[in-house]
Design goal:
The chain is an alpha/beta fold. It has two domains: 99 residues, Alpha-Beta Complex (Aspartate Aminotransferase, domain 1); 237 residues, Type I PLP-dependent aspartate aminotransferase-like (Major domain) (Aspartate Aminotransferase, domain 2, 3-Layer(aba) Sandwich), CATH 3.40.640. It contains 14 helices and 13 strands. The strands form three sheets. A seven-stranded mixed β-sheet has the order 2-8-7-6-5-3-4, sandwiched between helices. A four-stranded antiparallel β-sheet has the order 9-10-13-12. A two-stranded parallel ribbon has the order 1-11. A hairpin with an 8-residue loop joins strand 9 and strand 10. It starts with a strand and ends with a helix. Bound molecules: ligand TLP. Ligand TLP binds next to helix 3.
Amino acid sequence: MKIIDLRSDTVTFPTPEMREAMARADVGDDVMGEDPSINRLQELAAERMGKEAALFLPSGTMGNLAAVMAHCGRGDEVILGNQSHTFLFEGGGIAYLAGVHSYELPNLPDGRLDLQAVRDALRSDDVHYPVSRLLVLENTHNRCGGTVLPLEYMDAAAETAHSLGLSLHIDGARIFNAAVALDVPANRLVQGADSITFCLSKGLSAPVGSVLCGTRDFINKARRMRKHLGGGMRQAGVLAAAGIVALEKMVTRLGEDHKHAQALAKGLAGVDGVIVETPVPATNMVFVHLSDAVKADTKGVVQSLAGLNVKVGVVGSRRYRLVTHYGIEAGDIQTVVEAFRSVLQ
Ligand code: TLP
């Protein structure tokens, strides 16, 4: 019996083509810059993001952290959303490991930051204050519902950041979902950004890895930071080989995941007791919560669903996240809807 695992798109397995590419990969010592597969992945990633250079890292968390460390010195300040992954889910690493102070602005419901609020957050030159150095945005925005920050906003945010003397980093863990949803090339979407991290190991299905892109100088600094963080790997070309397949073969199919998410939202909207937060999800995430009429508790529902081979993520009291991905097929959607109906009836 198939387990329908909607907890995240991080649960995806490598495709058969990835496994073959991994078995055949040419490898070398990447700390010495000699892994041909990693070098190729980095070139490809830089090209896809329209940046000079790129760096392969073990995770999105390390990509964002290395970026913050390369942009900021200790005691500097980064402006970011209070719902951002970097603020909520990266273990406070920018404070703990980088000594960087954060200025959290409330994310608007669609994941954007109000650009006037960004202007207002800029510190004046005064010894009492940290030095404002960096603006971080997330696209797609995970906790705001897999929402997409539109192109005009991305351009305006870059202009605002630069006019304030700030650099702009994009946590683009799912930037290709945004690009596919907007039908805009990813490199255009991040054109104004100074750096971007994107993940190979989410909707693109590679087993491990993220890539940080930016100018050559910035990437040279970030490579030092990756070493400080213990992220310099050796013959990791076996991982990069899967990443190359991810970039070349797995981007355009993300639209299927978005369609499945829309079908799932529509189906769940018809189940008594389930409140779908966004009737037409923008990308591959569906957030739902239980109505007051439901007696069962948050965990009880998860356990009952798991008993029917459906796994969902808990993201708050009586609130769940369901993420579609490679491995979830059209036929699974109805199974999930029926599972909810049977658990909540
Ligand atoms: N997100 C994971 C969990 O950590 C919540 C998920 O299941 O969605 N940026 C964004 C926007 C992310 O969603 C994630 C992972 C990361 C960065 C970190 O990537 P990894 O897990 O590779 O460190």
